[in-house]
């Protein structure tokens, strides 16, 4: 791609220092018109201030897109993923991963709406996010061009960046209280990277965490909540119907209050190296546990096991940026097929980092029946049936043994 | 099988009321010689008293086998399973399941040593344990006979059992402090079933738990421990080498003290129904988390992902009683192949139910390197490589899109 | 179940000797009303004669159900299965397995329509079919009773059966030309078991095969056909639209003529033993190859690979009788999601047992583009992209190597 | 990498025109010493003539490596892969894929032996082979440099190549009888790409095939062979012990004679596009079928099913070039664990493209027993056991149905 080939570019613009530098750099280097796109996906910062900043950088008002995507984010991305009980590498709830395809989608849609031929983002050249943005964009528009400044420019140190900003009149005053860590936030989680975290043998400082209290500082009183599920999605909290974004917001508040959802891991990036990250996912941590609990009484055994077998692949697809791929959609079709009976309520106790299931019930879809599991007689289970069940399941071993095959 | 076909039977004998009744019943119904086998697998009760009870029931001294299997249990069953990070249905650490094959193995071996043609156990007719015992036995000796009294006799109520015991001079006085729940205990866990647990919407009473304190009653001070791993197994704690059973014993003590490892779930039994169970697995809960942590810096990404994909099947095999099956051994071969580099130490903080990883290190096998994941330049990663990586990974979408395939 | 509990039973009735004996035996032993169900699923025998036989055995005319299920069989069972490219144990096209759930379904439906409380079938006690019938029936009606005479009666030898038939006036004259093998036939295949086949080291006699010619006797001239696919199903042959049953009938004729689709294997039964079977699946063998061919140009790579990974499980589910299970439906949902683009035509050459793909094309969904795979330059693929693609895919090895991990 | 960084490069040198041009180009562009490596892996051409060509191009005699790797190729690469029954995308036997890691291994080893810091190959920039060579090389030596001339130079048309050759005195006279197709050959297969094959709707000309006769021209008489297996590998043919390479050579001769092993497919390349290829794999086609046959009587059912479930991933790993990866080794460990009982003989009839199994036997490991699958009584199988087996396998459906869940 030649620089002059780009006529108009849609930039994922946070309003912060880095993407402001990118904005300017795109104007200078590509001599092209820039459209800014700023989304509220629950990162907890005002998005409206990005408008003024964009205008100051010479963006035409009609080229400034500021949108509240919180409901779409939770409804169409977070909830479908939680139906899968997705966890990456046994630990990570995919908070950053799941937000990227939505941004990619809106970038491509805004490009179409504004006649832009290109999109750009501020993800660095060693991370997963560049992959997620760009694979998402290509999947939605095969002709889209992509500019990834971090892989292209020579502003590859903090000093050069600040010098460039200053030269171009971009405000570099550090926001008060801004974290020194590399962070990403949305309605599902906050992530932290960098600094002391670069030594996996070094625990994070307690003041790193922005959202949740430490379990040690959480209330001494536990709190019990009730979540109602419909087709695998949480729809009401303590008896009150909530929209998807409202639900996650409220579960975040509750989880954060009780020290729930902190995570400190070394994970494997798609681009090949290991990376240390810390995460806060208070509401998501509650949702995962509660969803498994409602599934435990409503989901058929083999449906549940099949879900568990498919899950790692599903999680990798989300982590690696393949949300819009045919294979993710195939897995989603299988998962969603299983969720039509996942209806009922779960009661959860929150206490100092613990998410404790204390009850699950389903008026309509309960497959648990006390009578069938006690040692007493019941109407559907003849204990003598176990003889044949065991005998035929063991038959291949019996035949092998009788044919002289030993087992050690 | 005709009753007269049985000449000599090895009974898994705990010394308790139920297996004492079985012992007597076998003598009466089958008119056969009975060999008792009592194992210490860490259930926390003396096994030696079973000798006297057996003798009182007429068992010949040379037919009484009392063994301490704790080291074998942890070394050859628990540890291999934890190399797999096995969890059944997203929650259960398989504490009961993993002990059964060992019992089956010794039953068959003792049968061979004593010239017995039959084995017997006290597992009920609706549970998983009967399957685990019997499939294990058949896998190890295809000609072995099995008597499962609970599926056969008509002592199918508590009253009939007690009457039978009384009539036969078996002590039915309730042991002081004995739990009213149906329990199973070994060095990995204690399980609880029955009573109020039969309503999955009813939380267990706090006095049910026998091993761990409640997180609410755990110390206000956290405790930090360091576990050293060798080839995927924990070998030293706080710098002190421990045998497998010593290691698990000590981790249990620590976990129990800090309210770690309580679990309350509805699970799917192999014989077809759902069942409510509560579990305490203090040491196992620490081990699972710590093992994932040491793997996170020492295991190759795709090896880790393959393990995650195979794990649900592995866990089901253990749960269903297929420890001695060729397919479990195939999976174990794959898992063990991956563990040769899983060496290093993990530091863990224990606090009121929380298992918090605060450090992981490996002098010999660390694959984490800070330089490769920062946004700075490094020697092995050229950020421009990401262009091609993304482009070719997206190529199938680009081609599809250019051929007119839309993505929604 | 007590015998007097059965009021009315629906019997899968072929009109042959065995099921006529069963019919009589049910009347005698269970003293119940019998409803007969005879289906044409393409077994190649008239079904109408079963009416007279049933009447002769005292069945009321309104209790005789004779149905042509060929279209439903192919449309709702065979075609969905072929979308999955299902093969059991690398060889078997599941011809018998796929017909059983349809029979189970109609048995249960007819039971409902006639007020019967029970169903019965003529499958033997060591085979897979009993499982498929009964699991199917229970899945569709949990209260249905099942009588499996072969597991119950004492007519366990050919002599006793014939004696019973003679005593009860059932015609035992051997049908002229009837195969001495144990056979099952439907529109998808014919299976053979028994006699010399019981020695897996003994090849079948050539006169065993009923449907296809030997490749050695097939025409010396090959024949080229063109199959059109829509959403993964074949819909037209040589330009002529055909219904599902017409399609399979015609492909059977063509395959049989050219010696296609004979198979001779040892397979693993669900009930635990190995079993030798021979199969003729002429049309199915063509369909499998042709379906893979149309998928090869229309299906996304990872969708295709995911299908391949799910296939063995899908095939086992069908083989084991779990057609109506939630897990089969989940897999089907995933598979069907992938088939919407599987449209186009395949040209196939048939020659002495060989199915040779000689062309595949799709006007609407072709993902193949010559330009992208030649060594020439093209618009979507920059060969330099391969540098980064390879480098990042190899990065985990490079890092491991630099950290001292050797690879042998 | 700067060009002056390369001191000495090991080139995979066939002696043909393309790699001769590369040799010269490396000398000119990189000003470095070139080591040539020419291997006989059964491609059917003399390798010794490459020596003189290399010398003519100025290579020092001590820098010329010509090796016969046929035994290592079959023993350590082909046979392990065939233990897995590996097939890529349902059709392709991975003939090219499996040879590349061996070449990569020797390139790296020769680099070490000669003090070279770089390897080079003649694979083009859009294919899979570049990936296989380079991932293999990096996996074995993380510091190795790689030069892939086709991705780097501007000789990107046939004309430029020829001009370059002529200018540099490289013989461009077309070898008589040389195929116009792009071919790759080794002891396992020959592949063809290009020309008319670039239209997937166009069948290959019959004179393209170099190895096998057409089924139409194969002998009218079939031929029966007997293959003996040991631990999953073929070790004797018609009673005569053969080394791995001898075995494959002889099976190729037999298969080719009988028109066996031609394949014409569209496959998905790892680098993202679809590609048409034709393949001849006569011996491999026989081996796959025969291996499945010997497994059918010696392998446990669930071991076989697990192998089938793992196979697609294994095949993709081989196809994509991950032979030396931890995950391929894990899968191989699982597969090899299963093969210790795969011993016995298979008789195969070869006839005009057909590979027909006509017998399988194992004196030591046969799990088939006629008695267990007939409808007669036997000692290990009580037909009444099927009642319980079916009932408990259906229990989850029965409970679901009784709880009101319908199944459609």
UniProtKB/TrEMBL annotation, chains A, B, C, D:
Q: List each copy of the Arginosuccinate synthase-like N-terminal domain by range.
A: 8-170
The principal location of this protein is cytoplasm
What UniProt keywords apply to this chain's record, in alphabetical order?
Amino-acid biosynthesis, Arginine biosynthesis, ATP-binding, Cytoplasm, Ligase, Nucleotide-binding
User: Which amino acids does the record list as binding ATP?
Assistant: 12-20, 39, 122
Q: So what EC number does this one have?
A: 6.3.4.5
For this chain, one GO molecular function annotation is:
ATP binding
Pfam families named in the record = Arginosuc_syn_C, Arginosuc_synth
What are the boundaries of the signal sequence?
A: none
Location of this chain's protein in the cell: Cytoplasm
- Residues in Arginosuccinate synthase C-terminal domain copies: 181-397
Which CDD domains does this entry report, sorted A to Z?
A: ASS
Pathway(s): Amino-acid biosynthesis; L-arginine biosynthesis; L-arginine from L-ornithine and carbamoyl phosphate: step 2/3
Instruction: List cellular component terms (GO).
Output: cytoplasm
* Family statement: Belongs to the argininosuccinate synthase family. Type 1 subfamily.
Tell me the subunit arrangement: Homotetramer.
| Protein name listed in UniProt | Argininosuccinate synthase
